[in-house]
Here is the input.
Amino acid sequence: MSGAYALLGHPIEHSLSPKLHDAINKITQTDNTYVALDILPENLESEVKNIIATGIKGFNLTMPHKQIIIPFLESLDSISKRTGAVNTVKVINDKLYGFNTDVNGFSEAVKKETNRDFKNETIVILGAGGAARAIAVACLEGKCKKLSICNRTSNKADALVEFLLSSNPGVSRNTVVACDINNARISTADIIINCTSLGMSPNSNDEMPLPIDTFLHEGQLVCDLIYNPSETKLLKFARDKKAVVMNGFPMLFWQAIFAWQIWNEREINETEIDKIKKLLKGQII
Ligand code: NAP
Here is the structure.
């Protein structure tokens, strides 16, 4: 089975997704194409209609389209409903079906890269944007003990907490709260996940999302969703403190694998995964 696929975003020129999907298509011997399309938010509806007319089979969405695509979709899977964001769309008979593979992509990345999970862990998420939504749902799905969301603009953290409470049945205020950057919760957290863009290239040298490195400690898991640079200042401090660290590439990798599986309706096996990783080594890892 072959087909045309795309990534819609803005800006898009530095995206690694086309290389990632080229590698997946090569190893799975699938004759698919995958291109990045720079689309302004105000043009999303008309551009989506245009690409459907070309016979596209599916597309990914990145900033700033993950939430604004929702009104144009026929239906959402349960994970994207709980997240309020869609990163993967499958086109069937010109109708659009929404999925969110960032959630399972992050959980799988943590499992595979660090051998850890979220069960009974106390977790702090830094940031309350689109990425934080998916990470929060991954932590809640993984049955974390406490999830604290800390954001520069505190009312956005409050709004995300309210959304998570209303869209994730069984989750209570005992589990998910908004918190301030100086809150002691951060220093005692088992897991800290940076979902802000602070530390991302080209501002990678002087910025980090926590005010001081004393928040970090041995044994903690510290994740940064940023993959460029591959080691942010936050991850470097965390590594120096003997924390377990993970950058954003494994999540990007696994969300792409899961999107491909939805589009192509087949699993990518372990041998193929190893071959894809090997092919990407030196290219983008
Ligand atoms: P977004 O919706 O624009 O959210 C950006 C977040 O960063 C907001 O919480 C914002 O806080 C915070 N922020 C920005 N500048 C800041 C500053 N100077 N000080 C403190 N906080 C600041 O973006 P997003 O889609 O969530 O993406 C966030 C990051 O995750 C990006 O680096 C992106 O590349 C990365 N990401 C990685 C993956 C992956 O697969 N690895 C997937 C998605 C995203 P305010 O609300 O106060 O503005």
Summary: The pocket of NAP is lined by residues 63, 102, 127-132, 151-153, 156, 195-198, 200, 225-227, 248, 251-252, 255 (CB under 6 Å).
